[in-house]
């Protein structure tokens, strides 16, 4: 069976981001089909599709929609476009190259759930994406696809575009809601603040990722069962993965979910093309910087959520970061930890203090002043943030940012402890290697 491109089919079309280009290629047919159905029927199609959320947690979208309490109004849809995980850039391209697809998914979702207000939260650094989606919204309003009495029906939906300020933490849904309300982006305690019950402005709120909603028009137009026939039984449809790092052809690829393997997407000529410069694979991060690392023996694992979870990591945000045999593992670990240390919101003491301590200890090791006891100290601090240093992580923090800083340390020390020992014993620096940043 030839696998269709569900969310990236217009990426190579020059005007695919415009209303004219979108309509010419079948755009808004899913919305027209939805308006011929009842809201419950649309919801049922999404449940039949078994569409897993594409933002990181991988929770089924149709089931999540069902958590809204009955007869509580108003209620809202919030689109999480604050893509911040290092190595992840699939949602940015969806926003830039096919904004109408996202808008159509939002309107269909609002129809299915009886909503009249949608908030599109886009990361502050995505200036081009913000411009593209603002232009698309203007076109959609002008032509009656958004606003009052959509396509001559009684459906009315307003979509508000909100620009973030560039904080990683607001990728967490409750912190995003705080930011939308004009507050500092601190995560909320769950319970009681599960967004479907107590969300934006204290009202029931569904928070979905950009890629998740971009699948909805195809599902409604072609049917949930057609979507479910693609991919694996528990990971249906297609999914977009961003492959970066030490590969010949870094890029974003839409693949059959649950059946494509890491080897195929990293080594395949029609995907990332293999390791650069004829080097060998040393390690790779399978699901964004917060995921525990995988190694060569994991290459033949399929991109299937439950299997990757059972192997001790996650598909997360859909970012595969590849490190070849020239990588300085201590520097790579430090780069990731430094990111999470700088992005900690500071609300929880273990994260605020612990991630900072981890960065300082790694700084000391890299600067030639490391002590033999520093490696056990790193693990001790990790254990205070994420007790047991296990997967899935336990946490002493409200959100998973703290445990995210533990993953690279646990992975690097578990596999490459000798490289840390060498820094401590020799007290000098290895050749700098560029990795997810400035290579420091």
What is the CATH C-level name of the largest domain?
Alpha Beta
Number of strands: 8
Determine the structural class based on helices, strands and strand pairing: alpha/beta
Which value, in Å, is the CA radius of gyration?
A: 22 Å
How do the SSEs run, as a string of H and E?
A: HHHHEHHEHEHEHHHEEHEHEHHHH
Flag low-confidence runs.
Answer: 428-440
Largest sheet: 4 strands, parallel
Q: Share of helix among residues?
A: 40-55%
- Average pLDDT figure: 95
Approximately what portion of the residues adopt beta-strand conformation? 5-15%
The CATH architecture of the largest domain would be 3-Layer(aba) Sandwich
The strands making up the biggest β-sheet line up spatially as 3-2-1-4
Output the CATH homologous superfamily of the largest domain.
NADH-ubiquinone oxidoreductase 51kDa subunit
Distance between the termini: 46 Å
Looking at the structure, the CATH topology of the largest domain is Rossmann fold
């Amino acid at each position: 069976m030839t696998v269709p491109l569900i969310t990236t089919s217009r990426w190579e079309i020059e005007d695919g981001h415009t209303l004219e280009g979108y309509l010419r290629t079948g755009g808004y047919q899913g919305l027209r089909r939805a308006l011929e159905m009842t809201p419950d029927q649309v919801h049922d199609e999404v449940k039949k599709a078994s569409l897993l959320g594409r933002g990181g947690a991988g929770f089924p979208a149709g089931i999540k929609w069902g958590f809204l309490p009955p007869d509580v109004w108003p209620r809202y849809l919030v689109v999480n476009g604050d893509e911040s995980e290092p190595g992840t850039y699939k949602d940015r391209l969806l926003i830039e190259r096919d904004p109408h697809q996202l808008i159509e998914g939002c309107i269909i979702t609002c129809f299915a759930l009886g909503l009249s207000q949608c908030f599109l939260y886009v990361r502050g650094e995505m200036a081009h994406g913000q411009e593209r989606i603002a232009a698309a919204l203007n076109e959609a309003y002008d032509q009656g696809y958004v606003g009052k009495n959509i396509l001559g029906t009684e459906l009315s939906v307003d979509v508000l575009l909100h620009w973030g300020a560039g904080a990683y933490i607001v990728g967490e849904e409750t912190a995003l809601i705080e930011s939308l309300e004009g507050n500092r982006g601190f995560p909320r305690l769950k319970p009681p603040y599960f967004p479907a019950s107590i969300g934006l402005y204290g009202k029931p709120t569904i928070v979905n990722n950009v890629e998740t909603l971009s699948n909805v028009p195809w599902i409604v137009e072609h049917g949930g069962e057609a979507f479910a026939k693609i991919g694996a039984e528990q990971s249906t449809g297609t999914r977009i993965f961003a492959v970066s790092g030490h590969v010949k052809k870094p890029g974003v690829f839409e693949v059959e979910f649950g059946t494509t393997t890491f080897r195929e997407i990293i080594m395949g000529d029609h995907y990332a093309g293999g390791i650069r410069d004829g080097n060998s694979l040393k390690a790779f991060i399978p699901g964004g910087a917060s995921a525990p690392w995988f190694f060569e023996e994991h290459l033949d694992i399929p991109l299937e959520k439950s299997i990757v979870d059972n192997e001790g990591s996650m598909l997360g945000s859909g970012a595969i970061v590849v490190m070849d045999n020239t990588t300085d593992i201590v520097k790579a670990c430090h780069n990731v930890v430094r990111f999470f240390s700088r992005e900690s919101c500071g609300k929880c003491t273990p994260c605020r203090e612990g991630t900072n301590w981890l960065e300082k200890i790694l700084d000391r090791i890299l600067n030639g002043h490391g002590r033999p006891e520093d490696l056990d100290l790193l693990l001790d601090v990790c254990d205070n943030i994420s007790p047991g240093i296990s997967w899935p992580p336990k946490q002493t923090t409200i959100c998973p940012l703290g445990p995210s800083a533990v993953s690279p340390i646990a992975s690097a020390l578990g596999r490459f402890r000798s490289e840390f020992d060498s820094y401590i014993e020799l007290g000098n620096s290895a050749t700098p290697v560029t990795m997810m940043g400035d290579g420091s």
